[in-house]
């Protein structure tokens, strides 16, 4: 039984002034997130519940060797199978295709894409929703590298990164500076992957996106801007994971580089 079902809907610190009847679907890709999953799900459920929002979480697990799927099954029993929707795949097929797969099962009006390892904290979600509502935006994205030139920017903390070594910080910062200057002016964090989309907008962009790995996020945003969709940014602090390891290995970095080059030369 869903422990929240009988609890009355509350508004948290007056976040939303009028009732929001939309449904919010989170796509949560997981690979070896056994230790993170229960807490991130709990915090997501709490955030939606406290804001009186309808929600579901689509967990796309890629046969994690650490047994993440078994934990997800237990969570579905606790919260309800309508809330924790399990859409596993038979092997590790990559982050980009995990989102595509998850989107097939989404029933909400808006889709939130985020990591399951607390680098993307659920506490920012109400700010995403608030910004979307106030400007009727198609997409809201978390930014670690806010620019004053961003057209729709939430008034919040400056954003940033904690826990990465200098090399990864420099690579990420450099790639984003270059990409946001050349490929997609007005969006300061193209490699980030904490985003809220209108569902039809996400479906449209995904249908024209070709990347499959980590570069997927950058291509999605470049295509979104080229298609004329409106994008707002919420400054977020990205905190590196405590449990487990990043899956951004050498192969992914090489394919990331190739994908960025393709974007620069084709879009
Ligand atoms: N289903 C599935 N999930 C995956 C896979 N690879 C990674 N994930 C999941 O995707 C999320 C992000 O993976 P991490 O391995 O933690 O990524 P990261 O190195 O922290 O990279 C982050 O920052 C990058 C840019 O700075 C982002 O591009 C990336 O999306 C992510 O947010 C986690 O929830 C992880 O379990 C996969 O092949 N399949
Ligand atoms: Mg991570």
From TrEMBL:
Recorded catalytic activity of this chain's protein: a di-trans,poly-cis-dolichyl phosphate + GDP-alpha-D-mannose = a di-trans,poly-cis-dolichyl beta-D-mannosyl phosphate + GDP
EC number: 2.4.1.83
One protein family per Pfam: Glycos_transf_2
Pathway: Protein modification; protein glycosylation
Superkingdom, natural source: Eukaryota
GO MF entries: dolichyl-phosphate beta-D-mannosyltransferase activity; metal ion binding
UniProt subcellular location: Endoplasmic reticulum
Major localisation: endoplasmic reticulum
Transmembrane regions listed in the UniProt entry: none
GO cellular component terms, A-Z: endoplasmic reticulum membrane
Cofactors that this protein relies on: Ca(2+); Mg(2+); Mn(2+)
The keyword 4Fe-4S belongs to this UniProt entry's keyword annotation: no
Keyword set, alphabetical order: Endoplasmic reticulum, Glycosyltransferase, Magnesium, Manganese, Metal-binding, Transferase
Domain Glycosyltransferase 2-like: 25-205
Any one GO biological process: dolichol-linked oligosaccharide biosynthetic process
Family in the record: Belongs to the glycosyltransferase 2 family.
Entry function: Transfers mannose from GDP-mannose to dolichol monophosphate to form dolichol phosphate mannose (Dol-P-Man) which is the mannosyl donor in pathways leading to N-glycosylation, glycosyl phosphatidylinositol membrane anchoring, and O-mannosylation of proteins.
Subunit structure: Component of the dolichol-phosphate mannose (DPM) synthase complex.
Cross-referenced PANTHER family: DOLICHOL-PHOSPHATE MANNOSYLTRANSFERASE SUBUNIT 1
Protein name: Dolichol-phosphate mannosyltransferase subunit 1
């Amino acid at each position: 039984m869903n422990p929240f079902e009988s609890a009355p809907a509350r508004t948290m610190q007056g976040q939303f002034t009028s009732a929001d009847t939309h449904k919010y679907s989170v796509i949560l890709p997981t690979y070896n997130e056994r230790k993170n999953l229960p807490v991130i799900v709990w915090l997501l459920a709490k955030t939606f519940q406290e804001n009186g929002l309808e929600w579901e979480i689509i967990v796309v697990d890629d046969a994690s060797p650490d047994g993440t799927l078994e934990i997800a099954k237990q969570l579905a029993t606790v919260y309800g199978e309508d809330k924790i929707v399990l859409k596993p795949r038979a092997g590790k097929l990559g982050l980009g295709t995990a989102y595509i797969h998850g989107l097939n099962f989404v029933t909400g009006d808006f889709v939130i894409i985020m990591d399951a390892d607390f680098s993307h904290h659920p506490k920012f979600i109400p700010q995403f929703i608030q910004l979307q509502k106030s400007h009727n935006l198609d997409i809201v994205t978390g930014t670690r590298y806010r620019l004053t030139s961003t057209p729709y920017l939430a008034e919040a903390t400056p954003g940033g990164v904690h826990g990465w070594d200098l090399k990864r910080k420099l690579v990420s910062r450099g790639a984003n500076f270059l990409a946001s200057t050349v490929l997609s002016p007005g969006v300061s964090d193209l490699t980030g992957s904490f985003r809220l989309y209108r569902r039809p907008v996400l479906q449209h962009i995904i249908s024209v996106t070709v990347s499959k790995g980590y570069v997927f996020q950058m291509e999605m945003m470049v295509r979104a801007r080229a298609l004329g969709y409106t994008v707002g940014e919420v400054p977020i602090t990205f905190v590196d994971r405590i449990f487990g390891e990043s899956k951004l290995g050498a192969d992914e970095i090489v394919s990331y580089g190739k994908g960025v080059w393709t974007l620069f030369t084709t879009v």
